[in-house]
Amino acid sequence: MSKRNELRILSWNADGVRGKISELIDFSQHDVSVDIILLCETRLTQSIPLATPGFTCYRQDKLSNGRGQGVAILVRNNLEHTIVNMPATVNIETIGINTNYLEWNIP
């Protein structure tokens, strides 16, 4: 990957990603400038896969008790990152990553 001076992040309120996975995959494969995709309201359960070629997926699915709608983060595989342990919450769905992009991208 040629290094850029910016990190490009896309945020999408999917309002249910299940029927839109092929569109998400198509977009992620054609827009090579997006490094991280943040998804909210995925409405996925553990039995539904969310895999996008070239990206690592972290997700917190909709709870079996009906609470929450699910969130996910897709990170381009060549972007150095680690998952962040988020504190347990009752009313907020959280998921996070840490990247040292600015550190390894400085010329």
TrEMBL record:
It comes from Euphydryas editha. GO terms for molecular function: catalytic activity. Residues 10-98 form the Endonuclease/exonuclease/phosphatase domain. Pfam families: Exo_endo_phos. InterPro entries: Endo/exonu/phosph_ase_sf, Endo/exonuclease/phosphatase. This is Endonuclease/exonuclease/phosphatase domain-containing protein.
